[in-house]
Amino acid sequence: MSAVSTRRPRARLAEPAPPVLRLAFAAPLSVVAGLLLVTAFPALAWWPMALPAVVLALVVLAGRGIWSSLLVGFLFGAAFFSVNLLFTARYLGPIPWIALSVLEALLTAVFAIPIALAYRWMPRLAPGTLGRLVLLPALVAGLWTLREQIVGSWPYGGFPWGRIGVSQVNGPFAEVASWVGMSGLTFLVVLLCAMAIEFVRTGRFRRLARAVPAALVLIVLVALPQFPTTDAGSLRVGAAQGNGPAGYFDQRSRNAVLNAQLAASAPLLGQDMDVLLWPEGGVDSDPTASRPTAAVLDELSRRVDAPLLVSAVTERGPDLFNSALLWTPDGGAIATYDKRHPVPFGEYVPDRAFWEPFAPDLIGLIGREYTPGTASPLFDLNGVGMGLAICFDVIYDDVVWDGAAAGAQIYMFQTNNADFRGTDENLQQLAFARMRAIETGRSVVNLSTVGTSQVIAPDGATLDELPVDVAGHMLTDVPLRTGLTPATVIGPAVKIVVGGGSLVALLAAGVLVAVRSRATKKTPTPEGAGV
Question: Is the entire prediction scored with pTM above 0.85?
């Protein structure tokens, strides 16, 4: 009598696929990818270029090991950020530019590793159509989005510049941001690119059904309209761009910036308006402490017969703040918002004792230490909610979303770009302002000391504009809106689900690969036994 085992052997886990490109080709192509991505942002703002840039940046990672993915990720990040952030060298020289570019490139390199691991693990676990054309691209896109989130929040609050979502502000995908926010838009754009890559890699072009996942994502990106918000009338906004000596190293006499703002505001005297807006740093002495400065603002508010929304450095006890002030002739500063995200190594020096020995001359130039604000980014102007952001506050989701949740019907963004004259920094920042208008369904008045300043409609269209490096004014009936877009409601959840979920999924994939690899190695060869 004999018995033969009928137990089927466990399917062996496939070996990792080799890299799509040899390192000798991947390294220079990663640089090309970074430079292509630069062109998707202002000043060129060729939004379609983000697509081939992302495709190249992913292809060079597919199949790579840890160390080679670290290298190509660094080269991609260095090529992109060294050009995209070139404006940081305008006044302070190459050291801050090199330091920030290298930091961002290093973070990009570190987070290239999880993307490379996704390309190694997911095809082994899910080699079928669903795994290759949907699950793998979704994991890769989620990890890319997670990288943007980390770069935008760490260290020292991060610097969320150069996001894929922002590059699409002038293209047909922008309206999707009103549903899922900028991080969600980044995810969908990278997802489309990753799906296209896998469609090509699987090599079955005649089976058009395999293109359906990518086609569906493309349809969502192109066809989904902006989420509608409700018309709530208009606000007549006066705005003055003084073009004064507002830069950190500009030579100026006392109150020179204030006087430049007064001169630019003069044509608005006697005009009917609901509020007069000045840019960040438009008052170069603290009106809450200086009676002469306060008297000037009182008189201006009386002459325009409207409240002022101005900005100045204010002092409370030992703390300094970069502040927005709602000013009336009777009450002075009746409301104050302090910039929530002061710029590290620009408006304060974190861990000064540690960093100063590395660049004592540069660190020594930053004498002031601004304190982060904690107030809600909203002013109530006679029943109209004005959302607020000061300069780089606009690139941080929390400031804009908190303003919307608090009841903003319009946004007033005050900025000072004088330290970046002659660069495209103001245009890159303006792209964020335009995307915030689309994302929230709100008008934005983005006012700079030196330009470019714009009034932006809720759909992102330009209603009024002042060019760079000229003094001027705007008087605009700006639409008001109520109602929250999905982006402002579920935006934080989208970031957690996409970013955190992709990291959990990658870790789970790694564990499963390890377990199945160990199990298949221990599985004996089936054999018969006789008695």
Answer: yes
Residue 157 CA to residue 343 CA, distance in Å, equals 9
Cα 19 from chain centre: 31
- In 3D space, the residue among 364, 359, 419, 344 whose CA is nearest the CA of residue 95 turns out to be 359
SS3 call for 313:
strand
Whether residue 175 contacts residue 438, with contact meaning beta carbons closer than 8 Å, is answered with yes
pLDDT digits (tens, 9 = 90+) for 354-379: 888 888 877 877 778 899 999 999 99
Q: Strand pairing of 230-241 and 378-381?
A: unpaired
Supply the pLDDT for residue 10: 53
Average pLDDT of the residues in 339-347: 90
- Nearest-angstrom CA–CA distance, 207 and 435: 38
Q: Residue 337: which of 312, 317, 318, 303 has the closest Cα?
A: 312
pLDDT tens per residue, range 43-77 = 999 999 999 999 999 999 999 999 999 999 999 99
All residues at 6 or more sequence positions from 167 whose CB lies less than 8 Å from its CB, including other chains = 37, 40, 41, 45, 47, 50, 431
Residue 248 confidence (pLDDT) = 79
Sheet holding 230-241, edge to edge: 332-338, 319-328, 308-316, 275-277, 230-241, 472-482
Pairing of strands 453-456, 462-466: antiparallel
Q: How many CB atoms lie within 10 A of CB 259?
A: 16
Question: Residue 293 and residue 327: Cα distance in Å, rounded?
Answer: 12
